[in-house]
Specification:
Blueprint (H helix, E strand, L loop, with lengths): L7 H10 L4 H19 L2 E3 L2 H16 L11 E5 L26 H8 L3 E6 L35 H8 L5 E5 L6 H7 L2 E4 L20 E5 L2 H11 L29 E4 L11 H16 L3 E4 L6 H20 L12 H9 L5 H22 L4 E5 L23 H5 L3 E9 L5 E8 L4 H15 L12
Parallel strand pairs: 2-3, 2-4, 7-8, 7-9
Antiparallel strand pairs: 1-3, 4-6, 5-6, 5-10, 9-11, 10-11
Helix pairs in contact: 2-3, 5-6, 7-13, 8-13, 9-10, 9-11
């Protein structure tokens, strides 16, 4: 088996059968990183020596009969805002090139407890504040589906999306405050899961907005996302929000049948931004695929407007980001990208009254969404309005990539971005399923069934021109 584009599940099976070792798999990905990442820019740091040492140790444990679980011995890329004690963690900022973690994030601790190998720190938009995926100071990763034109990778988990799509890691960890897992997943042709707020602990993950942040897996398949969700979820005394989450039943989603499921469908007149023709075709194909699976589709009479939710979500992000960075964001001598600086500074203009009223509306809309979703297992929407554009065409003053992403965070939903084929020129397309709060199981079941019908899993980016 060539590990490059294999799923976590397939690699796990190869390890259990003895046809591959963790050392072989880890070395393979390290070699691909060494060969391709200079052009792609997916990673900001890779410690090959430590990764190989961990792999060899995990192989010895397996040989002695000790296996931590299905993820034992598998590599993973981790977004550069997840703390690992004594390691550099820059949060995508040149200003923080010397910042070191003083403790382990709960996410990191759980990855290590599952036997995973953090193979490298993935590049990101500075302070996780941007959907295009650009980072003018530290560098913008290249979308691997076009090695001739530098296209956007999507953000803010830009490097995580590129690493998985390009076969530099079998999976990655991202964060999502308004689409930052789902946008790069969509533009890079992979799966991105934004769990419900509180499902995965945020302790030790540097915040953009503590009200809206979430941590999620970025993978090749829905089943792989489920594996990581099982490993990362659960209560954490350091994050009170996790105590409100009902327990997940590992693998329970696999027993759910499509017959009898009901999916609300976002109508075109409710789209906050019109789709380009190929994205529209992918959305229509997803609807047809769901019908063929026996799912009942219901045109949604949405009790909210996505544009209004996007604006309100952005207000909370800006206000809370400013609170985090206010001590240095005004200092022009600090090397912070101009567009991220502008976004953070916008938070200074959000009054206390506006912030408190928006938080109240956030709570209200969570209840409205919960009532709306009672008859449904999911809501089908686009993920992004168009495929990856050249970096040279980015308008940093606009936020079109957030139009379909931010609402899920604002209403307390879980969200799943799914590959939905390719454009005629070979760029990935995507659709999104939104679920009720803590309804990841039906979302995973629908996503896994849908990906069998609309994903083109045999297609891989051509990196030979690098």
């Amino acid at each position: 088996m060539d590990p490059s584009f294999a799923s976590l599940a397939d690699l796990s099976k190869a390890l259990s059968e003895g046809s591959l070792t963790s050392s072989t798999i880890t070395r393979h990905f390290l070699e691909r990183i060494a060969r391709h990442d200079k052009a792609l820019g997916a990673f900001v740091h890779v410690d090959a020596e430590r990764a190989m040492s961990m792999a060899e140790g995990l192989d010895k444990l397996r040989a002695s009969g000790v296996v931590y679980g299905p993820l034992h011995g598998l590599p993973i890329a981790v977004k550069d805002l997840v703390d690992w004690q004594d390691e550099t963690c820059t949060v995508g900022s040149a200003a923080w090139k010397d910042r070191r973690s003083t403790s382990d994030a709960t996410v990191m601790r759980k990855l290590l407890a599952a036997g995973m190998i953090p193979i490298g720190r993935a590049a990101m938009v500075e302070f996780a504040f941007g959907g295009w995926g650009t980072n003018p100071i530290c560098g913008t990763p290249r979308n691997p589906w076009d090695m001739q034109t530098h296209r956007i990778p999507g953000g803010s988990s830009s490097g995580s999306g590129v690493a998985v799509a390009a076969g530099l890691a079998p999976a990655a960890i991202g964060s999502d405050t308004g689409g930052s897992v789902r946008i790069p997943a969509a533009l890079n042709g992979i799966v991105g899961l934004k769990p419900t707020y509180g499902r995965i602990s945020l302790k030790g993950c540097f915040p953009l907005s503590s009200t809206l942040d979430s941590i999620g897996p970025m993978t090749r398949t829905v089943a792989d996302a489920a594996l990581l969700l099982d490993a990362l979820s659960g209560p954490d005394a350091s994050d009170p929000a996790t105590r409100l989450a009902p327990a997940l039943k590992p693998g329970a989603w696999q027993g759910l049948r499509m017959q009898g499921m009901r999916v609300a469908v976002m109508r075109e007149e409710d789209f906050p931004i019109p789709l380009d023709a190929e994205s529209q075709a992918a959305y229509d194909q997803a609807k047809e695929a769901l019908i063929s699976l026996g799912v009942t589709l219901v045109p949604a009479d949405l009790p909210f407007a996505f544009n209004e939710l996007t604006e309100s979500n952005g207000r909370i992000i800006a206000a809370e980001a400013y609170a985090v960075h206010r001590d240095y964001i005004h200092d022009e001598s600090v090397p912070i990208g101009p567009y991220v600086r502008q976004r953070v500074l916008a938070g200074a203009n959000v009054s206390a009254n506006d912030y408190i009223e928006t938080l109240a509306d956030h709570r209200r809309m969570k209840a409205v969404y919960a009532d709306f979703m009672k008859p449904f297992d999911a809501l089908l929407t686009p993920t992004v309005p168009f495929p990856a554009i050249p970096v040279s065409e980015v308008d940093e003053s606009a936020v079109p990539m957030a139009a379909y992403g931010r609402p899920a965070n604002y209403v307390g939903a879980c969200g799943l971005a799914l590959p939905a084929g390719f454009t005629e020129t070979g760029l990935p397309l995507s659709v999104q399923l939104m679920g009720a709060a803590f309804a990841e199981e039906p979302l995973l079941a629908l996503g896994a069934a849908l990906e069998q019908r609309i994903s083109k899993t045999d297609r891989q980016p051509d990196l030979t021109t690098v």
